[in-house]
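Throughout our pipeline, every protein is held as a single compact record rather than as scattered files. Nothing more is needed to write down the fold, since each code stands for a local backbone conformation. For reference, a complete record is included directly beneath this paragraph.
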Amino acid sequence: MQNNPAYYGPPPPANAIVTVTIIPPPVVTINNQTPETSIGNTTSSVLVDPNQQTNNVVLTYHPPDYNPAQPDQTNYTCSVTKSDVNETTVISNNSSDTITNKVTTKTTYTVDCANQYGRHSIKTILVNVLLNYQEF
């Protein structure tokens, strides 16, 4: 066969080794709880009381490679987006942070950390609000 640039050759062997790297999600705690997620599922949910007088959501996050002894030594930059029925807002652009909010409607927080190669590590927390029943 001639050296033709349109000829790509045979497909790779069926036993080719493929390496898949799974980037763990950011570590997120909300109201001192670490919502559990399974591999492949990056969404968790928590329940808050809307009648609480002060901030009822305290969200702390850091990237997957975070080391408390060296908090500035990370390969990730993170942002947090808050979405509720009214708007979607970026509320933080720090690698790690603590955010406090008063939530009265169902709200989603998305922590998106990207490394220097543009790979993203994402965790989404759905904050559900307790229903407020009144007796008559």
